[in-house]
Design a protein that fits this description.
Chain A: Keywords: Cell membrane, Membrane, Transmembrane, Transmembrane helix, Transport. The complex is a heterotrimer of chains A (about 350), B (about 300) and C (about 575). Chain A is mostly helical and about 350 residues long. Chain A has helices at about 1-30, 35-45, 50-60, 65-75, 105-140, 145-155, 160-180, 195-235, 240-245, 250-290, 295-305, 305-335, and strands at about 85, 90. Chain A is built from 12 helices and 2 strands. A two-stranded antiparallel sheet of chain A has the order 1-2. In chain A, a hairpin with a 4-residue loop joins β1 (about 85) and β2. By secondary structure, chain B is mainly α. In chain B, α2 packs across α4 and α4 (about 85-125) crosses α10. Chain B is elongated. Chain C has helices spanning about 1-20, 75-80, 135-145, 200-205, 215-225, 275-280, 295-305, 330-340, 345-350, 390-395, 425-440, 455-460, 480-485, 500-510, 515-530; strands at about 50-55, 90, 95-100, 110, 115-120, 165-170, 175-180, 235-240, 245-250, 265-270, 285-290, 305-320, 400, 410, 415-425, 445-450, 470-475, 535-550, 550-555, 575. Chain C is built from 15 helices and 20 strands. Chain C is globular. With about 575 residues, chain C is α+β, with helices and mostly antiparallel strands. The chains are: A mainly alpha (about 350), B mainly alpha (about 300), C alpha+beta (about 575). Chains in contact: A-B, A-C, B-C. At the A-C interface, α2, α3 and α7 of A face α5, α6, α12 and β17 of C.
């Protein structure tokens, strides 16, 4: 098992390297942040930007060298640097937003914000999905099954941004009816709120509920289809038939035999769903004004902030790969037929 | 194939068998009520988008005769927007361009994915390892980030075909995996052995024997790719990273509608949203019906 | 200016008296609706003691130091309006009010050659930590914005127009004298920003900024990253997070005379006008003055309860530029005809008029309609009227012809085709493009619309990758530097590469006088010339909106200030309902 994990972890390295090279080339070649910044400053000061400032911007963002050189320096930090770059030395490189927007600080604080959203949403969606999937399978071809299937497909077909906009407006309407601000529409907590973990959590509830609901509904449909199929397969398997033939009561068969086995695919699917929800979080964070990782990456793309985009690529890459790894391990733990050498 | 009689007979036999198989698929599909209803609705949407503009008096452009922000009426069944655009005309154009994207993505990504998966599965060994490692790389790259960055890199208006190509280039990985898995088992079958011994080239075997035999996987994935493309395209447009004017899309229409879900301009928000849902929903049901129809094993489980 | 100064004094007198009962009984409370007629006095009212206000800022920032290129951002400028040492503010009438917390009087010109300006600090003007503002703070600001490697090595100032022109700064008690280099002749000497950050804080942090240019740069970086706890304004920061929020309490040590009533003032980033409107309707914020206005937002606000809003021309002006390096547009006759064919009234009616019904076409590149220096040289030329016949006449006179299909041909017989570029995210510009395309088609010119991605406008302009383009410039009341930036042959911001020696000479002249009226007259000559060159066609001052909860008083929009509604932040308050 340990050997398996180590081997798999080592195999992540070339994959991540390849992904970063590809992304770096595509993102970096498509942007010229220096020119855009110079124009922005000019527009706001109404005066030409001094050449010394332009040169200083170029050198501080490493735009005075070629793309391959920039990638190499981003990865290794070797050579003539300002001491703020080099992934292997634990430095993420300069953000074009300025030295105060340190990438490592930004991603580490934002990671938890995104994780909170994604974790709650995924847990909730898995719970609902299992319920819906099991009910659907047990009552196969009944009206309930069709309704649940249809509702699942409906949410699968709904763009997250549309659902998000709708729920956000809906929350405002509910507030209006109740005459108080039960739901907040923007941000992930009261501005400047300080407190211990529990207080922060309570404070964040009015902000958390609606976006979590949106992300949950977006994610649950896929898992519930999964659960239904696997439940059906198990229910039609020989050992379940045998148990029934022996006269074991239906409820016991379901709980003891069918559900337990049918949960295996869902359990292994969960880590992947978590990383999938990271993508959905981009949209949800944008709509509800959460300062999470997803919005960070979108802003970075819009600004041509290559090093910030790379930080997101790397983090989401690691999350996905770790998700796959956990999923594989879970599969082995839950399914006694599989052994890792 | 050689010019002896026996193989020709064989081929004929296979052809009849195949026709029978497709007939059976069609019969099973038409028994799936939701799928059939969906197919009809989807065809109506396609007609709406591609034929509608020839029948309706307004196009998607701004006209000085059109009042701004008119609620739905007989003259403008879907209302009009602020600048003086008939929303029915705009919906036809947007649906058409969203469907264009979806169809090109579905076909493009399926071709790339099927070939890629078939090559990987057919050759196995180091070719397979290299191709699969590259697939891992593509899997790790966040989809919205990379497609958004590329769309942003286009230094002129992002047209629908730009978006279609970008989505196709990054959207084929799931098909490649599915086809590869299918090919891995197929390549050991006798008829591949036969084709190989008859002197068929690798390319011939891949395109003429392996891929046709993975058709059921491919057809299902084409339908699912349509839903995937519609949702990705509209999401990117909504985030401001997608199609740009003078082209339009359903996502852009929703973005332009803003937070009007509960005020007098509600129609600007709901109509394009419902259209997206209808397309994705019907496509999913059609895909479901096709899967059931083409995968007898699963049907057995179900019946 | 004189007239206004009196008004400011009168206003101060009344606020001082307000404490003693002035204004009591005067129930003439006005609302934002009056801003059209009384831009500087609308929505005034009696304030209750205490209260909290949360104000939305429509985008974030990434540096606390407004000297630097990173910190040159209208949003941080708004968020720090409560504490920053501005020289003064232009009010909505375009008149200058000197910062009451810093200076005892307006700056004085004590010598014209070289230009020497004397600043008299107010008794007790301080940094909020007991340290008085002094000459070192002036010198620090000068170094930071000098662009001179021997004063600040590796600094990235956003602008060096002030810093590079200073020859020396000397202090004597409460007076500080700034002496400029001989070549400095700006009529706008009075409005130069002279302070930014506390020199004593830099010293306390161990930066020897005065003697070591590297240390000076390090101090600038420190201020860029450090949340400001010092203050020279009516409020003091209690908590803040970069690009996210700033929370203020009243500054007890403020030297200004206006009475501050609020207990707490929060600036909070909410991106996008739609989100701001939703948050305001939902009671999460009390107001905002975003740098945009949309008809959708207005629809939302019209039906919202307890919310007041107004729309007016904002601090940016929209214009259409032509690229004089284009093979066709290098001909001034074609440029003139293109501008004559564009129907601005129609464009405005279908774009900006949706948000501001009384909006007027802008006829002068430098001075707003209604400014005392405003002159209209544009109307007479027929540019922007959409008069196709006139445009055709202009072209025929220059030897242009049309082929059988109505396509325009140059005198050499080439068919004219152009592109039109606009920022995709600006709907008004998109529609402007569509309508321009339609009218130029009538003239026989084929126009291709090409959108620009959100982050690429700077690149497109710098590479002159356009034939016709619609974008915006800031339009603050300062005008002396603008013509040379926009149109001088040498300027890097002359994106369409107009090269007109006569215009260059006119621009050079603007800087040669210290008299505002004379400078304005000379600037108008340059405007006249650039119109003859048919180079830039102004459209409108882009409308912006202010939206406030109706419980707030003394909050109103101000196009003339970068801080917009926050220009009179000390006077903000919650209405006294008793």
């Amino acid at each position: 098992m340990v050997v398996f994990i180590i081997r798999r972890t080592l195999m992540m390295i070339p994959v991540l390297l390849g992904a970063t090279i590809l992304c770096f080339a595509l993102v970096d070649l498509s942007n010229d942040p220096v020119q855009d910044r110079v124009f922005e400053i000019e527009q706001s000061t109404g005066e030409p930007v001094p050449q010394s400032t332009i040169d200083a911007l170029e050198s501080s963002w490493y735009y005075d060298r070629s793309v391959p050189e920039r990638y190499w320096i981003w990865l290794t930090g070797l050579g003539d640097t300002n001491g703020d770059i080099g992934l292997l030395q634990g430095k993420w490189g300069p953000s074009i937003e300025g030295s105060a927007m340190d990438i490592s600080y930004e991603v580490s604080t934002r990671f938890w914000i995104t994780l909170r959203l994604v974790l709650f949403a995924t847990l909730a969606s898995i719970g609902i999905a299992i319920l819906a999937g099991v009910v659907s399978a047990v009552k196969q071809y009944s009206r309930t099954d069709y309704t649940l299937t249809f509702v699942g497909f409906l949410f699968l077909a709904m763009p997250v941004f549309w659902l998000g906009s709708l729920f956000k407006e809906g929350a405002v309407q509910i507030n209006k009816v109740l005459g108080s601000t039960v739901f907040q529409t923007y941000g992930s907590g009261t501005t400047g709120f300080r407190g211990n973990g529990w207080e922060v959590f309570v404070d964040s509830l009015p902000f958390l509920i609606v976006p979590t609901l949106v992300l949950m509904l977006g994610g649950y449909a896929a898992i519930s289809r999964y659960q239904r199929a696997s439940m059906l397969e198990v229910m039609n398997s020989d050992y379940v038939r045998l148990a029934r033939a022996k006269g074991v009561r239906n409820g016991t068969v379901m709980r003891r035999h069918a559900l337990r086995t049918a949960l295996i695919p869902v359990a292994t699917f969960a880590p992947l769903a978590l990383s999938g929800a990271m993508g959905g979080a981009m949209v949800t964070e944008r709509i509800f004004g959460w300062r999470g990782l997803g919005v960070y990456s979108l802003d970075a793309i819009n600004a041509g902030d290559t090093f910030a985009v790379m930080a997101y690529v790397l983090i989401s890459g690691v999350v996905v790969l770790v998700g796959v790894l956990i999923s594989d391990i879970l599969y082995g733990v839950l399914d006694p037929r599989i052994r890792y050498e | 194939m050689s010019n002896t009689a026996a193989p020709r007979l064989d081929a004929e036999a296979m052809a009849t068998k195949e026709r029978g198989q497709w007939e059976m698929v069609a019969r099973r599909f038409f028994r799936h009520r939701a799928a059939v209803v969906s197919l009809v609705i989807f065809l109506v949407i396609v007609l709406f988008a591609y034929v509608g503009p020839f029948l309706w008096k307004w196009d998607y452009k701004i006209h000085s005769e059109i009042p701004s922000w008119a609620s739905p009426s007989l003259d403008h069944p879907f209302g009009t927007d602020k600048a003086g655009r008939d929303m029915l005309g705009a919906m036809m154009q947007a649906t058409k361009q969203s469907l264009n994207v979806a169809l090109v993505v579905a076909i493009g990504s399926t071709v790339i994915g099927a070939l890629y998966g078939a090559v990987a599965g057919f050759y196995r060994g180091w070719v397979d390892s290299v191709l699969m490692r590259f697939l891992d790389i593509m899997f790790v790259i966040p989809f919205l980030v990379i497609t958004g960055a590329l769309a942003g890199a286009i230094d002129t208006s992002v047209r629908w075909y730009h978006m279609a190509i970008i989505l196709a280039v990054f959207g084929w990985t799931s098909i490649a995996r599915a086809v590869r898995a299918e090919v891995l088992s197929l390549r050991e079958k006798e008829f591949i052995e036969a084709a190989r011994s008859a002197g068929g080239s690798d390319w011939h075997i891949i395109t003429k024997h392996l891929i046709p035999n993975t058709m059921s996987v491919i057809i299902v994935s084409v339908t699912l790719q349509i839903a995937f493309a519609i949702l990705s395209e509209t999401t990117l447009s909504f985030l401001g990273l997608g199609i740009q004017s003078p082209d339009t899309s359903l996502g852009l229409l929703i973005e332009a509608a803003g937070a009007s879900a509960f005020n007098e301009h509600w129609y600007l928000f709901y109509i394009p949203g419902v259209m997206i849902i209808l397309i994705a929903l019907t496509i999913n049901f059609i895909g479901d019906g096709l899967r059931d129809a083409m995968d007898p094993r699963q049907t057995m489980v179900r019946r | 200016m004189k007239r206004h100064h009196m008004a400011a004094v009168a206003a101060f007198a009344c606020t001082t008296l307000a404490l003693a009962g002035c204004g009591q009984g005067s129930t003439a409370t006005s609302s934002l609706d009056d801003c059209v007629t009384e831009p500087a006095d609308c929505n005034t009212g009696d304030r209750a003691e205490g209260g909290e206000i949360t104000w939305a800022v429509d985008a974030g920032w990434s540096s606390w130091n407004q000297n630097t290129a990173d910190g040159n951002n209208a949003y941080v400028s708004l968020a720090l309006a409560g504490m920053w040492p501005y020289t003064g503010q232009f009010d909505p009438d375009g008149e200058f009010i000197v910062n009451e917390g810093l200076f005892a009087s307006e700056p004085e010109l004590v010598s014209e050659s070289p230009v020497t300006v004397e600043y008299t600090l107010k008794e007790g003007a301080n940094w909020g930590d007991g340290t008085e503002i002094g000459v070192d703070d002036f010198i620090y600001h000068w170094y930071a914005r000098s662009g001179d490697e021997s004063l600040c090595a590796g600094c990235t100032p956003a602008t060096t127009t002030y810093g590079s022109q200073v020859a020396s700064i000397e202090g004597d008690g409460n007076t500080v004298t700034v002496t400029y280099v001989d070549s400095y002749h700006s009529a706008e000497w009075k409005y130069e920003e002279v302070l930014s950050l506390p020199a004593h804080v830099a010293e306390a942090q161990g930066f020897d900024w005065k003697n070591d240019p590297e240390q000076m740069a390090a101090a600038e970086l420190y201020f860029s990253e450090t949340t400001p706890t010092w203050t020279t304004g009516p409020y003091k920061v209690t908590d803040a997070s970069m690009g996210e929020y700033v929370i203020y309490e009243p500054n007890e040590d403020w030297a200004g005379d206006t009475d501050v009533t609020l207990d707490k003032l929060t600036f909070r980033v909410i991106e996008g006008i739609e989100n701001i409107v939703t948050a305001l309707r939902n009671g999460e914020i009390d107001g905002s003055s975003p740098f945009s206005a949309t008809a959708e937002a207005i629809t939302q606000l019209e039906t919202a309860e307890g919310v007041d809003y107004s729309v007016a021309g904002g601090p940016n002006w929209e214009h259409i530029d032509l690229n004089t390096r284009n093979e066709f547009l290098q001909d001034v006759a074609l440029r003139t005809a293109v501008f004559q064919a564009i129907d601005l009234e129609n464009i405005i009616e279908r774009t900006y008029a949706f948000v501001q019904s009384d909006i007027e076409r802008k006829n002068n590149h430098l001075f707003r309609n209604g400014s005392e220096y405003y002159e209209d040289h544009l109307t007479a030329t027929g540019q922007g009227t959409g008069d196709i016949e006139q445009a055709r006449g202009t072209l025929e006179d220059a030897g242009y012809t049309w082929d059988g299909d109505g396509n325009l041909l140059t005198p050499d017989g080439d068919q004219v085709t152009l592109d039109f570029r606009y920022l995709e995210t600006r709907e008004s510009r998109k529609i402007t493009g569509e309508l321009t395309q339609a009218t130029l088609t009538d003239l026989g010119i084929d126009v291709e619309l090409r959108a620009i991605a959100p982050d690429a406008l700077g690149t497109v302009l710098a590479e002159a990758d356009f034939d016709i383009i619609n974008f915006g410039w800031s339009s603050d009341p300062l005008f002396v530097g603008s013509p040379s930036q926009y149109w001088s042959s040498e300027s890097g911001s002359n994106f369409g590469h107009l090269e007109d020696p006569e215009l260059d000479a006119l621009i050079e002249d603007i800087n040669g006088t210290l008299d505002m009226d004379e400078a304005a007259a000379r600037a108008n000559e340059a405007v006249k010339r650039v119109i003859e060159d048919a180079y830039v066609l102004p459209i409108v001052d882009a409308p912006v909106m202010v939206m406030v909860s109706d419980r707030l008083v003394n909050v109103r929009d101000n196009w003339a200030s970068q801080q917009r509604a926050a220009y009179n932040i000390a006077e903000w308050g919650v209405a006294d309902t008793e």
